[in-house]
Amino acid sequence: MLNLKFCPSCGKESLTFNGRKMHCASCAFVFYNNTAAAVAVVIKCGDEVMLTRRNQDPSHGKLDLAGGFIDFEETAENACRRELFEEMQIEVDESKLKYICSIPNTYPYKGILYHTMDLFFEYEVAEKFDVVLEEHEISDTIWIKKNEIDLNEIAFESQKLFFENTDYNKNNERP
Hints:
By secondary structure, this protein is mainly beta. It has two domains: about 1-35; about 35-165, Nucleoside Triphosphate Pyrophosphohydrolase (Alpha-Beta Complex), CATH 3.90.79.10. It has helices spanning about 75-90, 155-165; strands at about 15, 20-25, 30, 35-45, 50-55, 65, 65-70, 95-110, 110-125, 140-145. The strands form two sheets. Strands 4, 5, 6, 7, 8, 9 and 10 form a seven-stranded mixed β-sheet that branches. The chain has a three-stranded antiparallel β-sheet with strand order 1-2-3, with no helix packed on it. The termini are far apart. One of its GO terms (biological process) is NADP+ catabolic process. Keywords: Hydrolase, Magnesium, Metal-binding.
């Protein structure tokens, strides 16, 4: 985690990091680098899913599922609703979100590798719709048939694993 040397508690140059926690030898300060929770929403219409194109790093220009980090004291379902509204002005009925699975991931950002637990949800819609993009984050959305998703174009490893290991990459319904 970068080159952090100074303890945020006592200010002394005695901070060490072992990959899981930071520890200060001077004042015994300990900070655990825990996994961050994030959501990814598969918006599904028939045999197609909506993917977004990232407009920022990491993985600028790659395809992504809508979603993001869960805020403090927020449920995963609330995060899905908030992220979809922030990114695309989509109003989501939380009761129609279906939890699918969780997959660990990493998110490299400005020199720090964040470990995440990505929670995948499905949101099924009756018909395709247009969105209002938050262009700082997303440059485009596309509807694509599940069996035509190119895993090389997917931004994050957890999402590649998701599409590889679920029936979303096949032309049939999930069991």
